[in-house]
Each structure stands twice: as C-alpha cells, then as structure tokens.
Write a structure and sequence with these properties.
Blueprint: H1 7-11, H2 13-42, H3 47-55, H4 58-74, H5 77-100, H6 106-130, H7 140-190, H8 210-222, H9 225-257, H10 260-283, H11 289-300, H12 303-307, H13 313-341, H14 347-358, H15 362-376, H16 378-397, H17 400-404
Length: 426
C-alpha cells in the first residue's frame, strides 16, 4: 500500500519534528489573529485601541529583525527559536489569564504584544535559516511547500476554530490555546538535532562585531542581483497590494457587497487557491524558479484591480482564488531560492533584510491606504495600486539574473545537480 505521508516527512526525521511543532503553532497564530481584536474589545477598548494593539508587535519587528538575523547566524538557530517560543508562550498565556480573570486592560495588552513581537523578530530569521540544516538541498522546495500548505490551510481553518473557541470560552480561551501551541512547538524544538552551518566560502575572516556581521549580511544581498531586486518587488507587493486586501477590500465589501459575510467568501476563496498553489509548488519540478516566481508575483499583484473591478461576488472570488495560487507559488519558490543559493552561515541575516522590507514596511501602506482612498476614491486607489504593483513584478521578470537562476547552484565541476524524484502528496 502506498504511504500517504509525504516523502520529505518520511525521509527527513528532523524536519518532521520541526514540521509538526510549527504546524500547530501556525494554527494557533491564525486563531490569535481573530481573537486579539475581540480581546481588546472585551477589555473595554475602542476601535482605535484595536488598531493600537494590532500595531504593537510591529514596532519591535522594525527594531529587532536585523538583530535577530545576526544572532541566528551567530548562535544555534533552533535554540533561538526555542527561546522565542517560550517567551511567546509566556506573553500569550499571561494575556489569556488576564482576560479569563477579567482584569485585562488595553495598556497591558499592548505591552504584552510588544514582548510577543520582540520574540517574533528573533524567531523568523532563525526559522528561515534553520530549514536547510534539517532538510537535504534537493528536498527544500517540498519542505517549503508543505509549510506553506499548513499556513494556507490555516487561513481557512483558523478563523472557524477561533469563532468556535471565542463562542465557548471567550477571547481568553482562544488565546490560551494559542499559548499552548507555543509550548508544544518548544517541546519539539528541544528534541531537534540540526547539523552545524557551513562557513561562507571565499571570506577571508569572519566578522566579529555586530555591525561587521550586519554589513557582511548586506554584502550577501548586494552581491546577488536576483536577491535585492526580488526584495524590492516583495516590498512593493506588501506596501501597495496587501493594503487593498486588508483595508480597502473590507471597506468595499461593507459598502457594496453586503458586508462581512460576502468578504469572508472572497477570503476563503483566496485561501483555497493558496492551498492549490502550495500543492503545485510541491509537485512541480521547476528549472528556473525565480522566473516562474516573478510571473506568479505579477498575477498576485492584480488583487487590487480584481477587488475593484465591479464584477459579481462569484467572479471576484474565483479570480482571488487564482491570485492565491500565485501568491503561494511565489513565496515557496522565493524562500527555496534563498535557502538554496545563499550560504548557510549568512542565510538568517539575508532573510532578516527580507522581513524588514516586507513586514516592516507594510504598516506604511496600511496607514496610507485609507487617507488616499478618501481623497481619490476607493476604486481609483485600487486601480492605481495595480498600475504600480504589476509593472514592478514585470520589471523583476526582466532582470536577467532572475530569469536565469537555476533551481540548484552549479557544482564545482560546473554541472547543476538534479532534484530527487518527486514524492506525491496524499
């Protein structure tokens, strides 16, 4: 009988441990995303307070992401992730306890979310850098696709689970579950035994100061045209396109589509498309991953014009599902390319610049989307977003190093290794 377990989980036991722990944590994060606003409201907060608490973890992300990248390249990455999980378990557990006992206040919630965001800033670069240490190079794409599949599935399952938990136990009960997932993730990380990172070749001497290591990481970015141009395109996507989904889409749904129920159909359709995109990324063998990724990013960047198209709800949902496929495909290929072509010893620093330019700049777009739409109108703003974002993705595709980047770096004899045989998803 054919096994239903994906091959990378069977063949890579260290990755299997990481995957199980992180899958539960991702589901908890999706629950938290829904529960936190209701937690603020249950503590007597206003709509402005909801925004304040939502923004609280973003500030330390801006301040500490680059620090997290340096530390993750300097120390054992899974131990940084373990410590981060323990801090997030404590912060989220305390929030849950305060809510369940009825003594939570908005300032306390905001402060604890700052602590949570600080731990996140150290976790993310370490997580990207850890994967090549627990997965063989020819299985990285499969591993990233499986991780993406969990994240995409969480977009569908998380809100439903959160709604049930909030109805049964309130926001405090939902966040208590999220806290528990961090404890479970920490337990799996404690049992992880990744291999050591390999030193950067061709480097005369390792940088020993923080600024020296940070400059060395930026040197890795600057020396690869496909990396810095890819980061620039991703920054445009986060600053220009995502506000159409997080800000203007709900506004348009409230005004013209009948409210939250209709918007949830669009969001769910995107989630289904994202799952399909992850399955495609798992199954397909792609010789030029960044060329395909750039084309996918151009499709993903059409979300604003789709939302503002004036089409029927069914048509918009179907087109958003297509963009969901493109978004998942791009980010799986992007992360795999970084992990495959960037030296292991510098990977977390490179990824920290990536996170800084994406998650760090996204609040700028979120803050500007509302005022700009009030001045120009919602639909003209959505069209303008598309006019900016789609050419940026097409420009990425026009970069020769992007189009030519192979799936695997050339070996010492100049040959390019082939991927291992594909393992089918169940």
């Amino acid at each position: 009988m054919k096994s239903v377990i994906p091959g990378v989980l069977r063949d890579e036991p260290q990755f299997a441990r990481l995957f199980i722990g992180q899958s539960l944590s991702v589901l908890g994060d999706r629950v938290s995303f829904v529960a936190v606003p209701f937690a603020v409201l249950s503590a007597g907060g206003s709509a402005s307070d909801v925004g304040l608490v939502a923004a609280a973890p973003l500030v330390p992300m801006l301040l500490f992401t680059l620090v997290g990248g340096v530390w993750a390249d300097r120390f054992r990455r899974h131990r940084i992730m373990l410590l981060s999980d323990l801090v997030r378990f404590a912060a989220q557990g305390l929030i849950a306890a305060l809510l369940l006992t009825g003594v939570a206040g908005v300032p306390t919630l905001a402060l604890l979310m700052v602590v949570f965001g600080t731990a996140d800033a150290f976790f993310m670069p370490a997580s990207t850098g850890l994967l090549p240490l627990v997965v063989a190079p020819d299985r990285l794409r499969e591993a990233n696709a499986l991780r993406g599949l969990v994240q995409s599935s969480g977009l569908v399952l998380g809100p439903a689970l959160a709604g049930g938990l909030i109805a049964l136990a309130g926001p405090g009960g939902a966040l208590a579950l999220d806290a528990l997932t961090f404890a479970v993730s920490a337990a799996f990380l404690a049992r992880l035994r990744p291999r050591e990172t390999e030193p950067v070749t061709g480097q005369a001497a390792p940088a020993t100061t923080f600024l020296g290591e940070l400059r060395a990481g930026w040197g890795q970015v600057r020396s690869r045209t496909w990396v810095w141009s890819g980061m620039a395109a991703i920054a445009v996507y986060h600053v220009v396109v995502l506000p159409s989904v997080f800000v203007l889409g709900p506004v348009l749904a409230e005004r013209e589509w009948g409210g939250a129920a209709s918007w949830s159909v669009v969001v769910a359709a995107f989630g289904v498309g994202a799952v399909v995109g992850d399955v495609c990324a798992y199954r397909l063998t792609i010789a030029r991953p960044m060329a395909v990724g750039a084309a996918a990013l151009a499709v993903a960047s059409c979300q604003a014009v789709i939302i503002g198209s004036g089409g029927s709800l069914a048509l918009i949902a179907v087109l958003e599902a297509v963009t969901g496929v493109a978004v998942s495909l791009f980010f799986v290929l992007w992360e795999t390319a970084l992990q495959t072509h960037v030296p292991e010893a510098a990977l977390s620093r490179v990824s920290s610049y990536d996170y800084l330019l994406s998650a760090g700049l996204m609040p700028v777009g979120l803050a500007l989307a509302g005022p700009v739409s009030e001045s120009l109108g919602v639909r003209p703003t959505l069209y303008a977003m598309t006019v900016i974002a789609v050419p940026a993705a097409i420009a990425l595709l026009c970069v020769p190093d992007v189009r030519r980047l192979p799936a695997y770096p050339a070996a010492a004899d100049g040959t390019v290794p082939h991927a291992a045989p594909e393992a089918a998803l169940p």
